[in-house]
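## retry 2 of 3
previous attempt timed out at serialization; input unchanged, resubmitting
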Amino acid sequence: MISHDPIMHNALSKVKRQLRYDLDYSTYMNDPAERLKIARLRAGFDTAKEAAESLGFPVSTYIGHENGSRGYSAKRAFTYARKFKVPEQWLLYGTGKAPGTDNTDTTAEIINIIERLPALRRAEALAILRVLDASE
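## retry succeeded, writing output
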């Protein structure tokens, strides 16, 4: 008998890819791995490796949590939530106030827009942001 695990894994990857470019922010926020990535970026860690080293966790473990290949426990979620300054319940279940949902905080919105752009458009957007940053 053939195991369905590889089939489901491939299906999950395709769904995640489609959701990544979906314009509806709330659609892909149903994934704890996506919420972890957004929390990390909002906390100022550019890479998963930086975050893992800051937390003192093995890089491969953290990357597995962030890319969704491994789930993370409530205990780990508590640690991530404290480090990234987000509500633990939001990180685990998507309930409660999401970071960046108030009108004064535009960082999450910028990250979400850039994450959804194709590679060429992303490079253009980053170039524009760098010019704006240098002009001050």
